[in-house]
Amino acid sequence: MFYRFIRPIVRFIIWVLNGHLHVHHKDRLPEGNYILVAPHRTWWEPVLFALAASPMEFMFMAKIELFKNPVLRFILNHSHAFPVDRKHPGPSVLKIPVKGLKEGKLSLIIFPSGTRHSAKLKSGALVIAKLSKKPLVPVVYQGPLTFKGLLKREPMEICFGEPIEIDRKMKMTKENEAKYDQIMQDAWNKLDQEQNPDFHYVAK
């Protein structure tokens, strides 16, 4: 209920701040729920992805430190967020999203690289997709990378890719992890080229 209440408010705020959110290839999103996977480029991407793919509702991971603030904790808890201790991730990092995906009501937004300053992919998204039997859907953001650029109303582009189905019988070997990591990287590169080949991400 809170998620559906807050979404139009957030959409209005984004429109006031920038007014140029453009969504491409939403028709590629599959029926049912899924896992959005993206290279992490800005801190506001999860919000934009969730707006771009509405009316689907999303779960997302948030660092545990954010839950220390009571106001922020209330918002996060009622927005389908769940805490993750990056230094000591426990089994809940996998169990919570897998359970939510299996129930079929929520999708998941995840950044396989973990942070905006890392290009090294981690296997979490792949494991969650395999256990939940849900497809990975690549998505990229192109647009301002600083809040100043956002306020200058530089266009923000969200581009969805074709779903990536995971072999349920696949064993989690280093070779298979590397295979799917490359598939995701290739999908993101294809979307970047498709949307704007001149866009280059530089970590801020």
UniProtKB/TrEMBL annotation:
Keywords: Acyltransferase, Transferase. Residues 34-144 form the Phospholipid/glycerol acyltransferase domain. CDD domains: LPLAT_AGPAT-like (cd07989). InterPro entries: Plipid/glycerol_acylTrfase. Coiled coil: none annotated. SUPFAM superfamilies: Glycerol-3-phosphate (1)-acyltransferase (SSF69593). GO terms for biological process: phosphatidic acid biosynthetic process. Pfam families: Acyltransferase (PF01553). One of its GO terms (molecular function) is 1-acylglycerol-3-phosphate O-acyltransferase activity. PANTHER family: 1-ACYL-SN-GLYCEROL-3-PHOSPHATE ACYLTRANSFERASE. This is 1-acyl-sn-glycerol-3-phosphate acyltransferase.
